[in-house]
Amino acid sequence: MVQIITDSSSLYTKEEGQKLGICAIPLCVSIGGKNFRDLEIPVEEFIADIDAGNIPFSSQPPLGDVVEAYETYRGKEMINISMADGLSGTYQTAVSARDMADNQKDITVINSRTLCGPHRYLVECAAAMAREDKTRGEILAMLEEKMRHTKSYLIPQDFDYLRRGGRLSSTAAFVGSVLNLKPVLTPNKECSRLDKFGIGRTMKGAVKAVFRQMKKDQVGKEDILYIAHGNVPEDALAIEAMAKEEFPGIDIRIHLLSHVFITQGGPGCVALQHIRR
Length: 277
Fold this sequence. Notes:
By secondary structure, the chain is α/β, with parallel strands linked by helices. The protein contains eleven helices and 13 strands. The chain has helices spanning 14-19, 43-51, 63-72, 90-100, 116-131, 136-147, 159-164, 170-179, 203-216, 233-246, 259-265; strands at residues 3-7, 22-25, 28-31, 34-37, 57-59, 78-82, 107-111, 150-155, 182-187, 194-200, 223-229, 251-256, 270-276. A hairpin with a 2-residue loop joins strand 3 (28-31) and strand 4. It is globular.
């Protein structure tokens, strides 16, 4: 059976992954002198540290952890479905670890060109096919097809997090904060950087702009809509209600963002993502 490996961009903890036969390697987070792994501590505790004035930082999984995972499954074919290259060094770490392995011919590293909800779905589909004893080639063909039919939108609440992460200029962050705007960002085609999609005066207005684009892209019952949020469940539920009106019958899945993505987008950020089933 092909072994599926991934990282915590899929929003899977190590323990949750193990239940599905997935190896989920967490990214690293630090704040206020504390170092821990993504999804390891309660998000509420993490945000309390941010509210206390501490600035969080994140980084890819240690190279040794990925090497160890490849060694653990020696003798099996492996597919490592990594978060988007360019938005993190995680993909490059996965490739470097493969190149160090003497069983590298058995290891395929996939740049998913996405993150969070769609990343999670890709991992789930791959794991399901692996349990059905599908070949590595069959699983890879499925992943490539689904990766062509997904888009993501980020609505941050605090421009400073994007500025610190190099995803927004200081001037744009200052202007946006002063005017109290709701920017909408979307990854470029390769998902190597975030580009401006639009700006709303309110969260509702920003979401409506995303929904208009989704309708142009003919998103509907054949798709899954992920609403991932930075500990603002009330916003997520309000968006879910809007989505049910605009896209009757669509499968909506709500997830809490991990510490790494809150580090990048800030507390209160919301991601809207869709992927074809």
